[in-house]
Amino acid sequence: MAWVGNLIRFSAIKSASSPSITAKPLILTTSPNFLFSSLSHFTTDASLHNHNRSSASPTQYGGLGPTKPKEKPRVVVLGSGWAGCRLMKGIDTKLYDVVCVSPRNHMVFTPLLASTCVGTLEFRSVAEPIARIQPAISKEPGSFYFLANCTGLDTHNHLVHCQTVTDGYTMDPRKFDISYDKLVIALGAEASTFGIQGVKEHAIFLREVHHAQEIRRKLLLNLMLSDVPGISEEEKRRLLHCVVVGGGPTGVEFSGELSDFIMRDVRQRYAHVKDYIHVTLIEANEILSSFDDRLRRYATKQLTKSGVRLVRGIVKDVEPQKLILNDGSEVPYGLLVWSTGVGPSPLVKSLDLPKSPGGRIGIDEWLRVPSVQDVFAIGDCSGFLESTGKTVLPALAQVAERQGKYLSILLNKIGRAGGGHAYGAKDVELGDPFVYRHLGSMATIGSFKALVDLRQSKEAKGISLAGFISWFVWRSAYLTRVISWRNRFYVAINWATTFVFGRDISRI
Amino acid sequence: MAWVGNLIRFSAIKSASSPSITAKPLILTTSPNFLFSSLSHFTTDASLHNHNRSSASPTQYGGLGPTKPKEKPRVVVLGSGWAGCRLMKGIDTKLYDVVCVSPRNHMVFTPLLASTCVGTLEFRSVAEPIARIQPAISKEPGSFYFLANCTGLDTHNHLVHCQTVTDGYTMDPRKFDISYDKLVIALGAEASTFGIQGVKEHAIFLREVHHAQEIRRKLLLNLMLSDVPGISEEEKRRLLHCVVVGGGPTGVEFSGELSDFIMRDVRQRYAHVKDYIHVTLIEANEILSSFDDRLRRYATKQLTKSGVRLVRGIVKDVEPQKLILNDGSEVPYGLLVWSTGVGPSPLVKSLDLPKSPGGRIGIDEWLRVPSVQDVFAIGDCSGFLESTGKTVLPALAQVAERQGKYLSILLNKIGRAGGGHAYGAKDVELGDPFVYRHLGSMATIGSFKALVDLRQSKEAKGISLAGFISWFVWRSAYLTRVISWRNRFYVAINWATTFVFGRDISRI
Fold first, then answer.
1. How many pairs of residues across A and B have Cβ atoms under 8 Å apart?
2. B213 and B331 housed in the same domain
3. Which among A15, A62, A266, A342 is placed 20 to 30 Å from B331, CA to CA?
4. A477: DSSP letter
5. How high is the ipTM of this complex?
6. B72 and B182 in one domain?
């Protein structure tokens, strides 16, 4: 450590105007000419900046060409969710180069995302950079992460079309192509709105870190605005009415966190408006429909007890400050969170690949996309083809993670057998197909309580837990699943500080 | 703790379809009719929503009227920087109600802000909510924090005009007035651009948390974009050229943090582009001009050693991808940070109050604004009037903090003497005037090195330190100054994790 040498380099010196000191500088002197170097590595020659660009359409640039037979084969992974990241983690980078294309450079630890909306956890504690999951991405000369969206496939030529994500600044979006030896489509799904008007404009989903950030900012904004002098009672109630649509685990967990936040933090820190804040959970059927009957009733009772209103209804229309239910009743809101499940994204719909029931990319038992070579699909974007005789698996982190793990082992096996290059896997014995075994479902419902349903399916027998023990099991289970030690550490620290100091309310 | 009762409430249950279990539910049952309550507290009567509003101009609402003689007098504080927050912390809330008006609900711990741009520290660790600094704000019935801007003063009627900050959503901005007994103007200053074209559009300042967030996002974006296939060498160099204009402590600290980030993190995690990233610090005169000559030379040498190019130059024009210096040379950049000092904000300029040299609000030795009653000004927005014979103090956190503390003691004294109400302080003996004693300056320069200049002024004699010991002194000094224990704890944790795991590179 170089800085240790500086440990003793300190000095008590007098004013610089004292000539005796100036003559013998104790630290050091450098000639001013030396200090201000020129910017010689830059040219002002305009011709160099004259790339053949047009701001109207993205510029077509080169890309990564096909690998040569002596080179490592290239696995291209589209997406950085549970499926794609688990796959990348497991890929043997001695066998393959890995190229990931995704609009975000991190994986979101989705089971804990709801906790970040109210500050129980911090945003960064639930985001895991891809480079930490698979370090080769940032080190190996042939492995890359590209901040880009996939815009299309050319399976005939083993090519992926991409376009950079630029957030509108710094430079125009650029198009480029990547040749693959093996392609893994792990593009996930999209929040479904059922075509209801106004959902995309006025509701916030809860799938990415920026959604959680927006919810937190808006919640704090509404808490502060409702305190402004002269605001009517009606307007105060509207601003502080948090409506959650969708009673699945995400909706329930967010409602639970929100009511915890209200009971523990709002009452103390927003004493002026504490009686105006309410949470309403709207669900067309019943909440947590995949859970054991008794757990569901327990959740219902606990949520009701902690102040969450459960409303059975179907949303017909969403306006900027109110939503309208099927029966015509109006529900004014200040914050609207939408979590009614997911469906295939427009890109997945547009791909010219076989589809499973429900419009996902159709796969066989080895997670391959039949009819094309070297293409696999995992996670929420994929589903078993009807011809496999298997049902489409639910859109759960657990399924995606298991598929990513299975496929990384399969690809490593193919690579070791010398089938890593394009069209090279034809004679490789694939071994056992992918079999999904459900390990149970968990959902937290606030107030140090959670549900754990360890049954393998809705009809099976098994163990269900509810209450504090489940909460403890739930927290521990998640703590050991958060991928890096850094984030495990931060999650524990966040929970501890929330417990001791309460949640942070800085609106940054 | 109510949840302890749930500790043992768990059960191993069989499938819900088993009739023997359904008959004796182990957890609990609730009638569905009971579960789904109605939304009776909402009315669908349109007339109630028909506030007399116009979206074109903010609605004028009521506000807080004058306090009555038997009520606690009200201190209105404009701003939530070092001066305003230190004042609020010191105000005796048994004597006064405190009302704070500011567009942000937290104080930014500015000396550590540069560290958050590259992830050495987290954003929340340097933001202290006002409600944690002065808990009465959120609890006392007469104390408030308003998320609003001051738009003008009516000193004749002891009134502050305000308008809510709404970020453009949820509701239209609203106007309201607040009557004050004592008014403390602590509005701070604004980054100066010297009228140079393009600075506001293309450069990022470094004064608020959202600035640091933007810098971090843009830096990570550029690192990723420069890795896209087909990008020219020239473009790569531009994207990864970080230019800092202004060689004061903020500019130097940010440059130091940036070069630390490059040396420790970029080299490892962005191995593909590590040779393209450079930092240039542009300063018209010399860097750290307020520091001891020898410390300055030491800083110059250290920064140069860690790869920061120091360029002497004056910026003439700023374009989206390059800036132009006075001598005509062009400097392409990917990230431009501007920190060339501060000047009075448009609001401060517009106030019809006496002004100090430099256009700040003029104050006397007791920090009062003469010619009006019950108005005080502290921090960067204020300066001693020429008539006091004192020089205007530098725009430093140290000055603001000291003035806030002094004024809180003065106001408490006035309050105890019964002079808290408007026009009530005329006969109160104010005691000693405010005297500023400079305790020294500190600046970190990266690589575990910092400068500490303990001289009271540029001409005085005193102690100067440079190197690791100073870095240690600097870190410790700041750790004990971060206001809450929560944030002290988080700063220490952040530093420790940065040291162990490196900086986080999730772009969220």
1. 369
2. yes
3. A62
4. H
5. 0.83
6. yes
